[in-house]
Amino acid sequence: MRVITGSARGRRLGELKGQETRPTTGKVKEGVFSALQFDLEGRRVLDLFAGTGQMGIEALSRGAKSCVFVDRRKDAAQLVRDNLSACGLSDAAQVFCADAMGYLTSLRTQFDLIFLDPPYADDVLERAIAHIARFDILAPRGIIVAECPVDKVLPALSAPYRIHREYRYGKIKVTVYHRDGEAEA
Prior knowledge:
185 residues, alpha/beta, Rossmann fold, 5 helices, 28% helix, globular
């Protein structure tokens, strides 16, 4: 697993041992960042189920202003720190070892881009999306990128949120939500 492009291009990222963490495949990551390529510069990013941190690290490498990484596993949080250090991106990042829903509940800030790739087995993705919309955690003109199994139906949200597009990569689906509205100057 490597950083595709930007300031950390080609850097190899460490991975967690075992089957508990399922890193985003290279094909999916390339597709996501191809779709986001003009929406990264200067953005504040949240990588909520960080795992290895590869999505947030890729965003930072491509010009995002900052990224907050959250994962409930101590070994994952440490791996994210190690990967950030190896890529020279630690100064633009914060890493929290915390439960995702607990972290969302405590937030008092907004993000421009949120990556959601939780374990597929439960309904935490749907709960996270609903919470983000209910408490306006996504900034105006912000983007949520949610990864799930292709057969999972994700919720439609009421305005100003909307499903912008869905992409399919074999057994994986990526749903991109946009939040309408004017960004603050």
